[in-house]
């Protein structure tokens, strides 16, 4: 099952576009409850989304998030949805900045086995670009130490780097250590080895159209 979890405000354009592009089986929209008046506007916008969902036979749900408990609530929702779905797209589509940032942070707090099943996506506003974040890869990058980060940075500076090229760019690192660190980066999925060359996997990808 494919699930779309998105931050939501008053604007339905980004959501409707993403639903059309992803064709999910389930959509969960997260809205920050700041006041009854503001939330009633959210509910009116959601009604339009629910009509689209009903016509396309997509299971849609609106989740109210209290600001004081936002991180815990969003994390709980993400864990539930990832456990129930084969893969989840977290779409940073709109709503208050607090909600958008909370959704991104909650994605990074997921346990490893769940983080590997999600990706974070954001669309450009007024320009045709899309950002995609590999959550598991970013989490792994945050876990490695300074020396492994140095090696990874060297690999990123070289397209299709050989072991000797990486060693030349980091002369202070013994070769035995370099072999061990490269093996660690391979196991963490931060580096791939293709035809004898080391290639860094970038956690963040931005694609722009015409």
TrEMBL record:
Pfam families: Csa3_N. Residues 3-111 form the Csa3 N-terminal domain. InterPro entries: Csa3_N, WH-like_DNA-bd_sf, WH_DNA-bd_sf. It comes from the Archaea. This is CRISPR-associated HTH regulatory protein, Csa3 family.
